[in-house]
């Protein structure tokens, strides 16, 4: 391409400060350096983790930044040493790297990566120490190493999945985070069993994907828990069989679920990012062998639990990106979608432009959507 090796000026939604509207700016995106790839983002979705960083965590050292981590695009150019990717490839940037060489990448027991940890040196900022973005003479942080709220981004090749060239980018961009996170938490982390009873706490996009994963794994009863009853009809589409609104009860939700199931659920998945809900999800599990998985992201508070809840045989687990090794698994998930064995279209409630990003944020704040998809072309 004519832009290869040159600085590209493009449009991006910049978060200059925490808890402030994003600003559409012209930014400069430098060429990729060794082992990096510059990607033209075609479509991106808004995830609650973007809102968490902007509106809840609000760490001042995490700004200014370009948010966004659930996108898809086309390779514009590659840096020295890149051989697996070339101009024109359709790709999905990954917020969890897979170097394929470290102890964790070689283990089937984890989707973590040592080189990914080293790259995100500033954990409180949720960004690598450097980026290829500048605006008004100031370097911008690259949110979780991806920053898909920009027309172009530069990503390490360890954090890019090459996908089917026929895949619709405005749909499969959802596989960059939310859908894989929820679906994989059920299938890979909880290892939901056929005939089991499951409870999914929180029916946002991640929770709906967890419901879909429970169904795919063969669960016979899937209980959706949310304080917004308007989500229940949508959850039926993904496989939920029962629904509970905690506001309808004057007793702990764990007690409600135990009464509904006699002993408690076999598997529970917390998809909210609330420590009190995490505890409720664990306590809802059957004593002796129940498994509860923490999926929702937060780093603001500690969790408290009585030891006997675990001593009695329950298992408490955490899941990042659904346990998927991104470079290997995301192309497979795209294939499953292309084979019409995975729902993605049903998650998209709004189509908007990047210029409407603050409107999209407001919709998510008001819980009036599952996923908004911002398209650049």
From TrEMBL:
It comes from Mola mola (Ocean sunfish). Signal peptide: none annotated. GO terms for cellular component: cytosol. This is Enoyl reductase (ER) domain-containing protein. PANTHER family: ALCOHOL DEHYDROGENASE (PTHR43880), ALCOHOL DEHYDROGENASE 8A-RELATED (PTHR43880:SF3). One of its GO terms (molecular function) is zinc ion binding. Its cofactor is Zn(2+). Keywords: Metal-binding, NAD, Oxidoreductase, Zinc.
């Amino acid at each position: 391409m004519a832009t290869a090796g040159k600085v590209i000026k493009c449009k991006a939604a910049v978060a200059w400060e925490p808890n402030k509207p994003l600003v559409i700016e012209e930014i400069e995106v430098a060429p990729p350096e060794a082992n990096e790839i510059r990607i033209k983002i075609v479509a991106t979705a808004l995830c609650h983790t973007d809102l968490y960083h902007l509106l809840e965590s609000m760490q001042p050292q995490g700004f200014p930044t370009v948010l966004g981590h659930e996108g898809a695009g086309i390779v514009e150019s590659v840096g020295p040493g890149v051989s697996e990717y070339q101009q024109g490839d359709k790709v999905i940037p990954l917020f969890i790297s897979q170097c394929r060489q470290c102890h964790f990448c070689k283990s089937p027991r984890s989707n973590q990566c040592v080189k990914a940890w080293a790259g995100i040196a500033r954990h409180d900022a949720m960004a690598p120490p450097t980026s290829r973005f500048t605006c008004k003479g100031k370097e911008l942080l690259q949110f979780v190493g991806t920053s898909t709220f920009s027309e172009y981004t530069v990503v390490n090749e360890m954090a890019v999945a090459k996908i089917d060239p026929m895949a619709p980018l405005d749909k499969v961009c959802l596989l960059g985070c939310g859908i894989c996170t929820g679906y994989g938490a059920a299938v890979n982390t909880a290892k939901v069993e056929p005939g089991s009873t499951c409870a999914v706490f929180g029916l946002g996009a991640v929770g709906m994907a967890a419901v879909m994963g429970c169904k795919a794994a063969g669960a016979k009863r899937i209980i959706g828990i949310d304080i917004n009853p308007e989500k229940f009809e949508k959850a039926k589409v993904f496989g939920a069989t029962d629904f509970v609104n905690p506001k309808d009860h004057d007793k702990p939700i764990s007690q409600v679920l135990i009464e509904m199931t006699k002993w408690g659920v076999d598997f529970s998945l917390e998809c909210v990012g609330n420590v009190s809900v995490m505890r409720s999800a664990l306590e809802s599990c059957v004593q002796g062998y129940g498994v509860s998985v923490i999926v929702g992201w937060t780093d603001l508070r500690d969790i408290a639990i009585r030891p006997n809840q675990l001593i009695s045989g329950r298992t408490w687990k955490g899941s990042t990106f659904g346990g998927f090794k991104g470079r290997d698994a995301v192309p497979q998930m795209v294939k499953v979608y292309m084979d019409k064995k995975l729902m993605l279209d049903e998650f998209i409630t709004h189509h908007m432009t990047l210029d409407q990003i603050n409107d999209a944020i407001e919709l998510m704040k008001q819980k009036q959507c599952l996923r908004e998809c911002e398209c650049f072309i």
